[in-house]
Structures are given as structure tokens and as C-alpha cells.
Write a structure and sequence with these properties.
heterotrimer, A: about 400 residues, two-stranded antiparallel ribbon, about 65% helix, globular, C: about 250 residues, mainly alpha, 12 helices, about 70% helix
């Protein structure tokens, strides 16, 4: 999962570097304000621990293979997201410098893929929500109430597994997007995704298992560790107070659902005409009614053309990029043009001609569809939230 | 000089996992004394030492350096007077080079760089390790590391030296060099150790700990020669004394 | 546990302590030049091969002037190759359009871009390794701090580097004792794994606490203060500007 420089364009590498550098600066500033002094040696030694632990493999029950952990999740549990991010960044930096495991230009991408998702998404929004507080500590009640303790532990296990899987899936998806955006590897988006995501699902499960194993051991052996961990306690209270115990999780759950549905399920959206289009087709013989030609309609149509940044649920002009058409109107001749980034487009068009244009592929696995889905979902969610908060504020004022 | 007195007044300490490591320890060490703290494993020696520079604060009782009790507010000042050498040199040598490690203390104290340079050179000369000043610490032998950890503490010019098992993992030559060094210091020296031969050579007073309590406190040779006392508390008389009789 | 890897870091560290003209250059000059190099190399379009060849000059100069054994660099580069190759190898499958013809041999675009990927890989990885081998972690971290990195991150890098060997050593000792008590093939069951790695974690945390004690005992109050300061010499400017000019010229 560590990307090499050879697959990254300077534009993508540079952009991700800026993003990562910003995150590092943000975490550094945040830590300076809130951290206890003893975090400095703890972060260093835990980074070394992660390195060492990555070299120890365990055999996965049921299969013949072995696995080890990446460490993003367990660091977040012990140190809180900001410190964990810096530690992960430092581990990846040393790996890049001394083992050539991941390139220097790609380091920004790698730190983002392997650090941001576990520390800032999987840990706060999944692990903490599911695990809810300190379920790893032994039950405070006498031993007859072990059931209560066991429930807590089961929940924490599930939390570790789900958080690890989601974190790694997002990271793998990040790798795919960054590689495709660089345009150097020739692997089509769809194939790449179908290659990466299942493998990283397995890796995510392994990570979850490994994290859960270690955390469970430490919680049994030395429960006070989690109280003693420098930032963990402070961090528990840092969830924004504006979101109550119910709203927060619901909102986050919806956001994640939006991401998954928009990003992945959208590929499987039916390509058959929807109800309205079907009806129109039956009535008029065409799927869309051609716009009337008066001035207002024409002006509005022009505005729509300009503002629609994801026309027909795909990137503009991405028609022939991967040999997959996304046009929804099979009767129109496909506009065949090379995509701006891929010179290969020219060769592909000549090789494959226009014949492919008429067919629609299902599932429509393209970057365009995913991005369109995600963006659409998030915009909708955002609008709904805005309306909700506005209504709430209005009710509060009256 | 009263500000160099180390005094423990009925210290008790309980670890977070509920182990009671110290159960009422009291003593008074005067300036320039060379004191050994001995006891079986688990008797509380290391825990006691950590109280002397405020790394741990007692759950009851107090520690005084000079006439000032060590509290959260006064530890910083207290640490200027007390220099502590820990058991594992790797825990103490954390800077990129030996020079920077020895300079860590003076730099934190805010000294100007030429002063720092002077302190560091003096300290390294004292322990005979000037030739290693640009080496990274993890590439040194155990004896060299040990000498340098002492240098890191000497560079801060403390009045009181506290050491936890200074001769562990040293080969005979390294150990001999350490003993020579310890004998040459004029500071108050408080040494927790299992190495009873070293105690015979270096220390004039011995405090025996057992199960978190002081069970004997007096002149070194008297206590070390007291076979029944030593055996009762998980120790034995050093060979050099046994063979003399 | 791959103890061989740790020995490799030690090796890089030893190489970094040699004294050659390249070693004596300021770390910042070397870092900026190397990053510019990587950007220049990666900015070529995907089918480029011949224009990449002059760029081999930079890593070769670093390696030979820095007296770094080329075999060491090659070995590490080979170990790191799998991911890039695994992705790049798909190019010839998906890009079959013929691009050039040599005699009766027709080479498709896919093979060209794959070859380009391999060249770029060698260039970028070789340069990165050479940079580290002739600078060393400490000077690199110090240089990076003066360019842009926040202090806390640099301190983190240095501490990580410092305690890498120590913790790895502890881990490998635990593994060795496990091996000696295992009859038959060495397979770490899930339960034992949790316990072993858990112990390593606890010991690491305990060590961190002790280090912290040692730090405060010597007056640490939250920030590591650094004393040494180096400045840019004329040789550093010559190195930096000279190579930048070369990269720009070779890119055209």
C-alpha cells in the first residue's frame, strides 16, 4: 500500500504534500496547546514499537497465511488522533528514507492514506462510537456481573474490526484515486479498484484482529494503561459539545452511508431509463423532452450546462477515457475525443473506434461515477443539515 | 551546608496498581556523605530513589532537599541540586550525539553556548570520554554509556548524586573505572546497588530496606559484617569481609 | 523478525558518518536538490525513456563522490520494487497499441510506459537512498526543521530513530526465546501474538516513562532545545544551483 514515486505525477504528489504538511502543522499546533510533557518520549517510543511490531507476524486462524498490523488504529487509541497522526507520519518517513518503502514524492500521499483515514475518520467516528468510552477496562462490578464486562469487550472488538476495515478501505481507495489522477499507470480505474479493495478488506480484517488482540491483552494485564496514556483521557472529552450523544452518531452514520453509497453502490445504479424517462419514451418516442426554444429556457439551459460540473453523473469529457461510456442517451452518437490527460486516448480511439460508444457497461465503475455519487450525497446531506439547524435555531428564537 | 541535606520523613508510596512500595521510610543524609541503599529485589530501592528528585511524589510523608520540601512546585529547583543516574543507560541517552546528551541539562538551564561547551568538556574529561563526544550514543559499549550517563549528570554541577545500580552490566575494567570515579567525587553520593563489594570500597554508610521499610541504618562495615541481619533481609555478607575473619 | 533490516539501518548510519565532499554539504541543499530531481523526473510524460537517461548523472555522482557502495543501494531498491512493478506490469496488458517499430519487432505503448516506470523507479529510489546514505538521519532532520517541518515532528523523528534499535532488539529477543521454546514450525498463534506484542507495548510504554523521568531530571520542560547551527556555504550554493540548472536544461 506504500506508493512509489514512479507512479505519481508531480501535480498529485505536490498537492498531497501540501495537504499532509497542513495536517502535520495542524496536529503540531494542536498538540503544543493540549499535550502533557510526557507525550514526547511516548510518541517516539511507540513509533519504534510500531516498527518492531510490524515485523512480527501471527497466523490467521482458519487460513494458512499470516498477518501483522499497520498500527494506525492502536496508536489512535493510545495517543488520540493528533499525536497518532504525527507518529504514523514519522514511521512512514523513516520507512521511506531507509527502506525505500514508498517514495519521497509519494510520501505525502502515503501519510494521508495511511494516517488521515485511521486517525481522523476510523478512530473518532467508528471506533469511539461503537466502543463508547472505556469498554476495555474490566467490569467495575463484582465478578458475577461478568456478562456486562463481556458485552463491553465484544463491542470493543467489533469497534476495532470495523474501524480497521473502513480505515484501510478508504486508504486503498485513496491510493487508487491518486494513481489514476497521475495518469502514469495504465490500469483502468475499475480493474484497479476491484484489485485493491478486496485485498485491503482482508488486510483491514487482519489489522482489526491484531489491534483487538493487543488492546485486549493490555486491558487485561494493565487496565490503568488507558488512563495513563497521555492524551487519551483529554481526548475523550474533545468531541464537539454541540453534537449531542444522539445527533452526533446519527449524523456521522449518515455521512458514512453517503460516502459508501455514493462512492461504490452508485456503480451498480441501473442503466435502464428511470420511471419518468420510460414514460416519456413511451409517449413521445424519446427519453428526454427536448427543451423548448424560447429565450428563458435557452438561458437556463446554458446556465445548467455551465454549472453542472458532473454532467450525467460523470466527469466532463470522460467518455472514452477507459473504454467505458457513461452517456445515458444511447441514440446520440458518442462524442469521441481524447481526454486531456491521457495521450493514450488517441491510440485507444483509433484502436477501438466508435462501436463501443453505444454500449453502456454495468456496473459503471468509473471515477466519475464515484465522485459524482459522493459529492451529490454530501451536498444533499449538507443541505439537509443546514435546513435542520436553521429550523432548530428558528424554533429556539421564537 | 544545610542546603545539601537530603531528608526523608516517613515516606509512603502506593503505585496505581495498588502495590504499596514504601511503608514509612525516614533518614537524614548530610552533605558529603557516601551512602549505599541495599535490599533484596522488590524492597523498594528504585522507588525510593525516584522520590529523591521528584520523579515520584510520595502518597504520604515528604522529601526535603535542604530545608525545602519537594512538591510539584518546587521540583524544578530541587532537580538542579540532585543529579540522578538511572539503571538503564539507554533510557538516559536520547539525543543524537554524546555531546548533545551531556549538553541537554545545561542547555535546559539556559546557559549561554560557550558556558555549555565548557561544562560539557569538563564533564566528559572527568569521566574520560572526551574522545567520544561526536558519536551517537547507541553505538557505545555498556561501560562507555554508563560513564557518559554520569557525565550528563555532572554537567549540571549537582550537589547530590543519586545512582541506581551503577555497576550493573559492567566488565571488570569498566567497574574499576566507575569505582575510581565514585571515590573521587566530593558530592553527597546515594547509591542503590546489589554490588556489595562496591559498597565496601566506596560507601561509609548503609541503609537496608526490606519490604518498603528501613530495617537498618548505620556505618557500612558494621552492617555489612552483621551476618544474621544481612541474611534475614535477603542479603549476604560481601566476600571481602567474610574472608577477612 | 527481520533482524537483517535493522542491520541495514545501522549500515546506512555508518555510511552517513563518512567524510566526503558530498557528506560535508549542507543537508538543506541536498534535500532541495533531490526533491527538485524527483519532480523533474516525474514530470515527463508517460512514454518518455531516452530523455530520462541524463538524469542518472545525479544519483551516480552522489553515490560515487559519497563513496557509497552501489550494491547497497541496488539491493534496497530491489527490495522496494514489488509494489511499483506490480502496478506497472499491467500497462503492457491494457495498452496494446503499437508505438514504435524496431526492425521487425513491434513494441506497444504499454511496454514503453512500463519501461519508463522502471527507469523512474530506479532514479527516484536510488536518489532517495543516496541522499539518506550521505546525510544521515540527524543532519537530515535538522535540515528539514530549518526548511519547514514543525519542531515537534522533527523531535518525533529523532526519538523514533533513536529507539528503533532498542525496541526492535527487545522484540527480537522475545521472538528468539519463543523460537527456542517452539518444537516444530514457528507459527505464532493469535493468542500468543496478542500477549507477545502486548508485552512489547507495555515495556515500550514503561521505557517511555523512564525516559521522561530522565528528561525532567535534567530540566526538560516541554521543548527540546537545539544548540548546533550550521549555515550555507558557497559550496552548497554551487551544488544547489548547478544541479537545478542541469535539471531544467535536461528537461527541455
Amino acid at each position: 500500500m506504500h506508493m512509489a514515486d514512479a507512479l505519481i505525477s508531480p501535480a498529485v504528489g505536490g498537492t498531497m504534500w501540501v495537504v499532509t504538511a497542513g495536517l502535520i502543522a495542524y496536529c503540531a499546533r494542536k498538540l503544543k496547546q493540549t499535550m502533557k510533557d510526557n507525550l514526547v518520549p511516548m510518541m517516539g517510543v511507540l513509533g519504534a514499537f510500531i516498527f518492531a511490531a510490524q515485523m512480527i507476524n501471527f497466523s490467521i486462524p482458519g487460513t494458512g497465511s499470516s498477518g501483522h498490523f499497520g498500527g494506525g488504529l492502536i496508536l489512535s487509541v493510545l495517543l488520540g488522533p493528533h499525536a497518532a497522526f504525527l507518529v504514523i507520519a514519522s514511521v512512514l518517513t523513516v520507512q521511506a528514507l531507509f527502506f525505500a518503502d514508498g517514495g519521497l514524492l509519494a510520501l505525502g500521499c502515503n501519510i494521508f492514506n495511511l494516517g488521515f483515514f485511521p486517525a481522523f475518520i476510523a478512530y473518532p467516528f467508528i471506533y469511539r462510537l461503537i466502543a463508547r468510552g472505556e469498554p476495555w477496562s474490566p467490569s467495575p462490578w463484582p465478578s458475577s456481573d461478568r456478562l456486562a464486562g463481556r458485552h463491553g469487550t465484544l463491542r470493543a472488538w467489533i469497534a476495532a474490526m470495523v474501524a480497521a476495515v473502513v480505515g484501510l478501505q478508504l486508504g486503498a481507495f485513496g491510493v487508487v484515486l491518486e494513481t489514476k489522477a497521475s495518469g502514469i499507470a495504465g490500469l483502468p480505474f475499475g480493474t484497479f479498484v476491484l484489485l485493491m479493495l478486496p485485498i485491503h478488506l482482508a488486510i483491514g480484517i487482519v489489522e482489526g484482529l491484531a489491534t483487538a488482540a493487543v488492546v485486549a491483552f493490555v486491558a487485561r494485564a494493565r487496565p490503568e494503561t488507558f488512563d495513563a496514556a497521555p492524551v487519551a483521557a483529554k481526548d475523550k472529552t474533545s468531541l464537539r459539545p454541540a453534537l449531542s450523544k444522539v445527533e452526533g452518531p446519527v449524523l456521522i452514520g449518515l455521512a458514512i452511508a453517503a460516502l459508501i453509497i455514493g462512492g461504490i453502490v452508485s456503480w451498480f445504479a441501473s442503466t435502464h431509463p428511470d420511471g419518468l424517462e420510460w414514460s416519456i419514451a413511451k409517449v413521445t418516442g424519446k427519453e428526454e423532452v427536448s427543451g423548448s426554444s424560447d429565450a428563458v429556457h435557452r438561458k437556463l439551459a446554458a446556465v445548467q450546462e455551465k454549472t453542472a460540473f458532473l454532467p450525467d453523473y460523470g466527469f466532463k469529457g470522460s467518455g472514452e477515457k477507459d473504454g467505458i461510456a457513461t452517456s445515458a442517451s444511447p441514440t446520440e452518437p458518442e462524442h469521441v475525443g481524447p481526454s486531456p490527460r491521457s495521450e493514450r486516448g488517441k491510440l485507444a480511439c483509433h484502436a477501438f473506434g466508435v462501436a463501443k460508444a453505444v454500449e453502456e457497461k454495468w456496473p459503471a465503475v468509473t471515477a466519475g461515477t464515484s465522485v459524482a455519487g459522493i459529492v451529490g450525497g454530501l451536498i444533499t446531506l449538507g443541505l439537509v443539515c443546514l435546513i435542520g439547524f436553521a429550523l432548530k435555531a428558528r424554533r429556539g428564537n421564537v | 551546608m544545610s542546603h545539601h541535606i537530603v531528608e526523608a520523613r516517613d515516606i509512603g508510596f502506593i503505585y496505581p496498581d495498588k502495590t504499596e512500595a514504601l511503608k514509612g521510610v525516614s533518614f537524614r543524609i548530610m552533605h558529603g556523605e557516601s551512602v549505599a541503599i541495599i535490599g533484596a529485589n522488590g524492597s523498594g530501592k528504585s522507588t525510593l530513589l525516584l522520590h529523591l528528585n521528584g520523579c515520584l511524589l510520595p502518597t504520604r510523608g515528604e522529601v526535603r532537599i535542604g530545608e525545602t520540601p519537594l512538591t510539584r512546585q518546587t521540583v524544578v529547583a530541587g532537580r538542579r541540586a540532585v543529579g540522578m543516574v538511572f539503571q538503564d543507560p539507554d533510557d538516559q541517552l536520547f539525543m543524537p550525539t554524546v555531546f548533545e546528551d551531556v549538553a541537554f541539562g545545561p542547555v535546559n538551564a539556559g546557559l549561554p553556548s560557550d558556558e555549555v561547551e565548557r561544562c560539557v568538556t569538563l564533564a566528559l574529561e572527568r569521566v574520560g570520554m572526551v574522545h567520544l563526544k561526536d558519536r551517537p550514543p547507541y553505538r557505545l559499549s555498556a561501560g562507555e554509556k554508563r560513564a557518559i550517563t554520569i557525565a550528563t549528570v555532572l554537567a549540571m554541577a549537582p550537589n547530590i548524586l543519586v545512582m541506581d545500580e551503577p555497576s550493573s552490566n559492567l566488565d571488570p575494567r569498566g567497574r574499576r573505572r566507575l569505582i575510581g570515579l565514585l571515590k573521587s567525587f566530593e558530592h553527597t553520593r546515594i547509591i542503590a546497588t546489589h554490588d556489595l563489594e562496591l559498597v565496601v570500597e566506596v560507601c561509609s554508610r548503609v541503609i537496608v530496606l526490606d519490604d518498603g521499610r528501613v530495617v537498618a541504618d548505620g556505618p557500612a562495615l558494621d552492617i555489612l559484617d552483621n551476618e544474621s541481619l544481612m541474611i534475614a533481609h535477603g542479603l549476604e555478607c560481601p566476600s571481602s569481609l567474610r574472608l577477612k575473619t | 523478525m527481520r533482524l537483517a533490516s535493522w542491520i541495514e539501518i545501522g549500515r546506512m548510519d555508518e555510511l552517513a558518518r563518512l567524510d566526503t565532499p558530498v557528506h560535508r554539504l549542507d543537508a538543506r541543499a541536498k534535500v532541495i536538490t533531490s526533491i527538485a530531481f524527483i519532480v523533474a523526473v516525474m514530470s515527463f510524460p508517460r512514454y518518455e525513456i531516452s530523455a530520462l537517461t541524463p538524469f542518472f548523472l545525479y544519483p551516480l555522482v552522489l553515490i560515487f563522490l559519497g563513496r557509497i557502495p552501489p550494491g547497497c543501494i541496488m539491493q534496497k531498491a530491489l527490495m522496494a520494487a514489488p509494489f511499483a512493478l506490480a502496478i506497472g506490469i499491467f500497462n503492457p496488458f491494457f495498452d496494446r497499441a503499437p508505438a514504435i517499430v524496431i526492425g521487425s519487432l513491434v513494441i506497444s505503448g504499454g511496454w514503453l510506459s512500463f519501461a519508463s516506470i522502471i527507469l523512474r523507479f530506479l532514479l527516484t529510489v536510488g536518489t532517495a537512498l543516496a541522499l539518506v546514505a550521505c546525510t544521515g538521519m540527524y543532519r537530515l532532520a535538522e535540515g528539514l526543521e530549518r526548511i519547514c517541518l514543525p519542531r515537534i515532528f522533527v523531535v518525533q523523528l529523532l526519538f523514533l530513530y533513536r529507539y528503533l534499535f532498542v525496541v526492535a532488539n527487545e522484540g527480537s529477543r522475545m521472538m528468539r526465546s519463543l523460537e527456542l521454546r517452539t518444537c516444530g514450525p514457528m507459527r505464532l498463534s493469535y493468542h500468543v501474538y496478542g500477549s507477545l506484542v502486548g508485552h512489547l507495548l507495555l515495556r515500550s510504554m514503561a521505557r517511555a516513562e523512564r525516559i521522561y523521568c530522565a528528561m525532567v531530571a535534567r530540566g526538560f520542560s516541554g521543548e527540546i532545545k537545539v544548540m548546533r547551527k550550521t549555515s550555507f556555504q558557497p559550496a552548497d550554493w554551487v551544488f544547489l544551483l548547478g544541479w537545478l540548472a542541469f535539471f531544467v536544461a535536461a528537461r527541455r
